[in-house]
Specification:
Helices cover 38% and strands 12% of the residues. By secondary structure, the chain is of the alpha/beta class. The longest helix is centred in the first third of the chain and has 21 residues.
Length: 328
């Protein structure tokens, strides 16, 4: 992982706990598997487990030649696609991820965004700030609120499933689209299975939780955005590539839709993008995922897995390589 990742994720308490379950040099952070000096190559030759995080180099064939004893990779973050290669699966390396831990703050952000969107909290705050007097809520915001509104979740990912769980206490209809989700699983989640176009037509809020794949690029293009009802809100905490930014910008400039965007394409919008200024857009800088103290949850999840390995127990969050073709 990068030095920055280690400093942010693994605090003193986590390092002490890690030293209690594994033999390691807590000062050694590897950012290049071919690096000579500082005993790096000797450590790699001895390593049974790689503890990885953001900034990890690719664990490819050449890297694995330097790690003849490696049996597992424990990733203290979400997706492993950036560093795990086919060479790992071919050698039988077991890979585990803290993606479930990282899903929690994203789901919490999404829950807040859904409830605020249906309540038109940002619009109400702006009206109050601009008028600085009594705001006639019934005349300005007729029909708003969360009672019996319809929420559409796109993607039964870890985050999508967690959002569905968090929505259960509320008087909301929850639809879900995922081509790999069965009827029994949908019932267990408390959601109604829907095709994507019907979900868009019926939902007051549409929240995206699908992976970034060739088939999901611009999943929400001009045609699909046009299906959403006037006044509906699109929430994107997944990947910017799921949405055609130009098409969404056109809808938002017209005032027909609202949006809560934690991911965009490009990842950092140009300085002159209207999305920074439009009153019907909440734009946040990729902060839905683990930040600050939430990063320590990732460390705890990874150390839990290493502790299981050390005691001969199977990993809780093992990555299935067959699922990577349709997951993040």
């Amino acid at each position: 992982m990068s030095e920055e990742t280690k400093a942010a994720v693994f605090g003193p308490d986590a390092l002490r706990r890690l030293e209690g379950v594994a033999e390691l040099d807590p000062t050694l952070v590897v950012t290049d598997f071919s690096r000579e000096g500082d005993g790096v190559q000797g450590r790699l030759r001895e390593a049974e487990v790689l503890l990885t995080g953001w900034g990890c180099p690719r664990v490819d064939h050449d890297a694995l030649l330097r790690m003849p004893r490696l049996k597992a990779v424990v990733h203290a973050a979400g997706s492993v696609k950036h560093h795990i290669t086919d060479a790992c699966w071919q050698r039988g390396i077991v890979v585990t991820t803290a993606a479930s831990a990282n899903a929690l703050p994203v789901a919490e952000y999404t829950l807040a965004a859904i409830l605020f969107a249906n309540k038109r909290v940002l619009d109400g705050a702006r009206a109050y700030r601009e008028s600085r007097r009594h705001v006639s809520l019934l005349s300005l915001f007729p029909g708003v609120g969360n009672y019996r509104r319809t929420v559409g979740l796109v993607g039964a990912s870890r985050i999508g499933r967690r959002v569905a769980e968090l929505l259960k206490p509320f008087d909301l209809r929850v639809l879900m689209y995922d081509p790999y989700l069965g009827a029994d699983e949908a019932r267990a989640l408390g959601v109604e299975l829907s095709d994507l176009d019907a979900l868009c037509l019926r939902s007051d809020v549409v929240s995206l939780h699908a992976p970034e794949l060739p088939g999901t690029r611009h999943l929400f293009d001009a045609a699909r955005l046009s299906l959403m009802p006037d006044g509906a809100t699109l929430i994107n905490t997944a990947r910017g590539s799921l949405v055609d930014t130009d098409a969404l910008t056109k809808e938002l400039r017209a005032g027909r839709l609202h949006a809560v965007l934690d991911h965009t394409e490009p990842e950092v919008l140009p300085a002159d993008s209207p999305l920074y200024e439009l009153p019907n857009v909440l734009l946040t800088p990729h902060l839905a995922g683990s930040i600050g103290g939430e990063l320590h949850r990732l460390a705890d999840a990874a150390i839990d897995e290493i502790q299981r390995y050390a005691t001969g127990l199977p990993f809780h969050h093992r990555v299935d390589p067959d699922s990577l073709a349709h997951s993040a």
